[in-house]
Amino acid sequence: MKPFGDIGLVGCCANAERVFFMHAPIAMIGRSNNQESHASRRGHRHRLAREREYLTHTGLHGLSWVNAGCEGHLHVAIANELGSRMPLSLRPEFYKRHIRQVLSDRPWTAQTLRDVIEALPGATVSLVRCFSPTFLQARLRRWRERLDGTKARARREQTSYRGEVRSLRFGDILQAASYIASESVRLANQAAARSSAPTE
Do the Cβ atoms of 49 and 68 come closer than 8 Å? Predict the structure, then answer.
């Protein structure tokens, strides 16, 4: 797939039959003519003009950092047929970030308004989807866990467990170090006693 930031690397690893790792800096083989880090800034989405022809899976042709990045991830997910295991629908947060960068154009143009109008139907559908019974049940369960402290308690238990494991390992290391030090002292004393003993 066409590289876009680190998403090209994700696509290569997800679609490759085998992936090998080396003790060396990773270099991505490919050519990208835009500067993605600069294109994510407010008012700089024009740097993504070369990405417009690749925007097919999100349903939006308006340029934004989140739209181009999400396009790469959807390309990987669809190529690997992940839609049967996880939902690939876009969330309201995606549309909010997309519209925010579109509205950062200075000055606004007719293209700015077209891109905003294009995103409104998808944003409306994603908001409606968020009010489905399944989504609301999951959200209520998370809020209940926050209120009754279930999640915080689980986090504390996990932290304490990890702390015990860490302290045990540290204790083992201290014990081994003290044993090595005592043995070194004993061997040094024996060597000194041998060297100071009179020879016949």
Answer: no
DSSP 41: S
Q: Note the Cα 113 to chain centre separation in Å.
A: 32
The per-residue DSSP string of 164-186 comes to: HHHHHHHHHHHHHHHHHHHHHHH
Residues contacting 177, CB < 8 A, separation 6+:
none
Alpha carbon 136 to chain centroid distance?
25
Length of the chain: 200
pTM given for the model: 0.57
Residue 98 CB partners (closer than 8 Å, separation 6+): 60, 62, 64, 66, 67, 119
What phi and psi, each to the nearest 5 degrees, are found at residue 19? -125, 125
Q: Count the neighbouring beta carbons within 10 Å of the beta carbon of residue 27.
A: 7
pLDDT digits (tens, 9 = 90+) for 65-85: 889 888 888 887 888 788 888
The separation between CA 142 and the C-alpha centre of its own chain, rounded to angstroms, equals: 22
64 vs 147: CA distance, rounded Å? 37
* 145 contacts 92 by C-beta, under 8 angstroms: no
Q: pLDDT tens digits, residue range 151-181?
A: 667 666 666 554 544 444 555 666 667 777 7
